[in-house]
Amino acid sequence: MACSIFTTFLLLSVFLSACTCNATKVYHDGRAITIDGQRRLLISGSIHYPRSTLEMWPDLIKKAKDGGVDAIETYVFWNAHEPFRRHYDFSGNLDLISFIKTIQDHGMYAVLRIGPYVCAEWNYGGFPLWLHNMRGIDILRTTNTVYMNEMQNFTALIVDMMKQENLFASQGGPIILAQVENEYGNVMTSYGDAAKAYVDWCAKMADSLHIGVPWIMCQQENAPQPMINTCNGWYCDQFTPNNPNTPKLWTENWTGWFKKWGGSDPYRTTEDLAYATARFFQVGGTFNNYYMYHGGTNFGRSAGGPYIITSYDYDAPLDEYGNFNQPKYGHLKELHAVLHSMEKLLTHGNVSNIDMGNSVLVTIYKTTNASGCFLSNANTTSDANVRFEGALYHVPAWSVSILPDCKNEAYNTAKVNTETWVKENKAENEAVALKWVWRPENIDDIVVKGKGDKTVCKLIDQKVANDVSDYLWYMTSVNINENDPIWSHDMRLRVNCTGQVLHAFVNGDYLGKQYATEYGTFHYVYERKVKFKPGFNQITLLSVTVGFQNYGPKFDATTNGVSGPVEIIGKKGNERVIKDLSLQKWSYKAGLNSIDRYNKLLNVNSSEWRSDTLPTQQKFTWYKTTFKAPLGRDPVSLDLEGLGKGHAWVNGKSIGRYWPSNIAHDSNCTVKPCDYRGKYDNTKCVRNCGIPTQKWYHVPRSFLVDGENELILFEEFGGNPSLVNFQTIKVGSACGNAYENRTMEISCIPGRNISAIRFASYGDVQGTCRSFQKGTCHEKNDALGIIKKNCIGKEKCAVLADEALFGSVNCQGLKKRLVAEAVC
Ligand code: GAL
Q: What percentage of the chain has pLDDT greater than the value 70?
């Protein structure tokens, strides 16, 4: 059967490759990607289709296009598409073809990173767990024929699907680039001699699929021709491709970072992101992809890890809900417009550089009839006054000024003229308390009787259970008598774990749970005092995964679950006596009674739901309620504060794992204002320590119906659902900001008007949105009155930061700006 599907695809692809209707020729030279012979300067943005919904795609893609983005990049998620071997799923938000066609409908290009290993903070890096469990596979991503056959099969399947729909540019479609593997170069030394052969094979295999557009291999210094090696990172200005005929491409320009349970919120400043991007184009880059442009949500069990949270907001230009993350979105949009206006110059111009000393560099691009300049200041503390061709330019520290005509500064990365949005969660006025019913997950057969589905005489890795659930029960029975050497009044159960959470029971009694508190360390030892009874004792361990590891050398082989040993520790006098249970007969059962292997709910309407007193702080409990969707079209968020850890479904659709009781313990949060100057990494500028890692969960509007909706929670740790409520996300304040002679714009989201102005000033304004203060020099005229008159009652307004309007101000060389805070 599988074979015949494959043959059909092959025949189709042969037929289709003959059809070159509207074909676009994508190639490259040492300078740029060329499309129909023209060198292009391309801005791309990552949007992963399964991290939003079909209904959200057009809006996200349109916003990207409006933001000056030319191409949308996505990975292809193998384990989502082939959850069981040769059983494919391309439905709903896995409809890759529709996603690419939506990109095409918007007149944009697509970059398809097939991988099929993707990393991406996605469960197991996108590898299906059945692949790991196939006979003949020891390690993935190396020259193992079983693995290579599967990888080729999936890659070819995706390529053929695209060809069938004419989606490659060579067929008139939007896909201009494709990727095989992902950052293998970062880890390849650990695969020994086989690594080089594997890279060569990947390249050959990809090339043999004849897609008619170039293939890329990111972070792969030794990428064999014709693969293009590309750069990923916070900064890629120093990157040089391994071949003079390949252009300088940046496939992952990290706009922020991901978050783990127990971690704080990563935040990358707009100024630094713009600086990194502008630097890249200054020094010859011609293709830049933002990773992520929209991060989105890890629905279901798709979050990788371990410990990647459900939100994949990423501090990207479009936030998790699809709203503008301002000023990041707007400041980059301005940058894109300036760069696009210089496309010809940057892709054809002769380049010369003038080193002005103290990390200041002037770069001039010149063609016969035009020239464009970059003035960069890589100094982390001192601003520079650059004298260039008779004029003086103020270039703040760690910034790049762009002069499209080498005369007038059109853009500076550190001078943000875009408004800042502060979003608020709003409950509806008439919000009613939710009424709950509940039922326990019936675990008696497991924790009292130890009834499993499979029995073996060893501890197994949780991956063996093919990832059909987060939960794997390990059960054994142990006969202990009073004359046993370990028998004492001080007996303990000790379990070595590499899973993320462990619960233990002895004879049906709960002993407690434990999880690795330092995120990033996977191994921990669980030890509890136990009262055994003489005779047979039932020991049940529940190992819980919170996303399988997705990155690192040979990450796929990392053990998960109860790795062992499992021991009973007794005492004879002062001597410890240990009984190792690891090689006993262990029974196994994967999952919970009410969730199937696709993470779909069963027994939703069972008669077991109870409406008597709602238990709280009770582990392994189901809660169900109904609710009305919040009015309007604003994105909806579910507040789960009060709950412990578990999983949530709205109208049967999973909105992901929740764990609001996990508090961000990270001590990195800075108290002083975050300084954009100097090299960024994900430990800099973090926020929100000491509060739940994630208490808000995105409920896409398309999951909701008019009338009654149903919310079901599986509470694993024990919690209290009485505070759970639905809210909408709105722009609360919009803060406009514009430097002298630029226009300050303020806008609320479409359909909402500015209702008040809280602050306005022109001068060296201090503070940030919501905490602005007048500076040492400020306007003469009534700034508040002027802004009120221009803005109140309007959806958007624009006011020039003009001395004539606000009264002349002498700020003695300090940067003057017009700033206002509006209420939406
Ligand atoms: C890269 C990887 C991406 C993503 C990113 C961090 O190394 O290629 O898939 O994991 O790191 O968000």
A: 96
Residues 143 and 292 in one domain: yes
- Of 232, 236, 682, best ligand 1 pocket probe by most atoms within 8 Å of the beta carbon: 232
Contact between 76 and 48 (Cβ < 8 Å): no
Q: How far apart are CA 808 and CA 762, in angstroms?
A: 10
Instruction: Give pLDDT tens digits for 710-752.
Output: 999 999 999 999 999 999 998 888 999 999 999 999 998 878 8
Per the domain annotation, does 695 fall within a domain? no
Residue 671: per-residue pLDDT: 66
Residue 753 covered by a domain: yes
Query: Ligand 1 pocket test: which of 254, 551, 555, 681 has the largest number of ligand atoms within 8 Å of its C-beta?
Result: 551
Query: Is there a single domain that holds both residue 308 and residue 452?
Result: no
Do 278 and 376 contact (CB within 8 A), yes or no?
Answer: yes
User: What CATH number is attached to the domain comprising 755?
Assistant: 2.60.120.740
- Section 10-28 average pLDDT: 64
For the chain, percent of residues with pLDDT exceeding 90:
86
- 668: number of CA atoms within 13 Å, CB side? 16
Residue 1 has pLDDT above 70, yes or no: no
Helix (H) / strand (E) element for 492: namely: strand 492-497
* Ligand 1 midpoint to CA 181 (Å): 12
Cβ-contact 616, 488 below 8 angstroms: no
CATH, residue 514: 2.60.120.260
3-state per-residue secondary structure call for 516-565: CCCCCCCCEEEEEECCCCCEEEEEEEEEECCCCECCCCCHHHCCCCEEEE
415-458 pLDDT, tens digit per residue, is 999 989 988 888 765 567 899 999 999 999 999 999 999 999 99
Six-digit token pair at 176?
């201009």
The amino acid sitting at 201 is: W
Give the nearest ligand 1 atom to 551 CA. Answer: 10
Tally of domains in the chain: 3
- Residues 725 and 698: their CA atoms lie apart, in Å, by 12
Same domain, 54 and 195: yes
Domain boundary among 546, 563, 590: 590
Whether 309 and 454 share a structural domain: no
Same domain, 318 and 463: no
Quote the ligand 1 centre to 74 CA distance (angstroms). Answer: 12
Tell me if 256 is assigned to some domain: yes
For residue 48, report the distance from its CA to the centre of ligand 1, in Å: 13
Residues labelled catalytic: 183, 252
**Ligand 1 pocket, residues with Cβ under 6 angstroms:** 118-121, 182-183, 232, 252, 258
CA of 256 to the centre of ligand 1 (A): 11
For residues 543-577, one letter each, b for 16 or more C-beta atoms within 10 angstroms of the residue's C-beta and e for the rest, the string is bbbbbbbbbeeebbebbbbbbbebbbbbeeeeeeb
The upper half-sphere exposure of residue 182, i.e. CA atoms within 13 Å in the direction of its Cβ, equals 23
- Residue with CA at minimum distance from ligand 1 atom 10: 120
From the list 270, 256, 206, 342, the residue with the least C-alpha distance to 46 is 256
Long-range pairs for 452-457: beta carbons < 8 A, 24 or more residues apart? 452/587, 452/588, 452/589, 453/587, 453/588, 453/589, 453/590, 454/587, 454/588, 454/589, 455/585, 455/586, 455/587, 455/588, 456/585, 456/586, 456/588, 457/583, 457/584, 457/585, 457/586
Nearest to 628 by CA among 564, 710, 543: 710
State the distance between the two ends of the chain, measured CA to CA, in whole angstroms.
58
Which amino acid would we find at residue 535? G
Task: Tell me the residue ranges of DSSP E strands in 234-370.
Answer: 249-254, 287-294, 350-357, 360-366
Domain assignment present for residue 614? The answer is: no
Final residue of a domain: which of 325, 349, 369?
325
Q: Are residues 451 and 583 in the same domain?
A: yes
Q: What CATH number corresponds to the domain at position 300?
A: 3.20.20.80
Q: Cα(405)–Cα(546) distance, rounded to whole angstroms? A: 53
Q: Residue 492: which domain range?
A: 444-590
How far apart CA 328 and CA 303 sit, in angstroms, is 25
Same domain, 170 and 312: yes
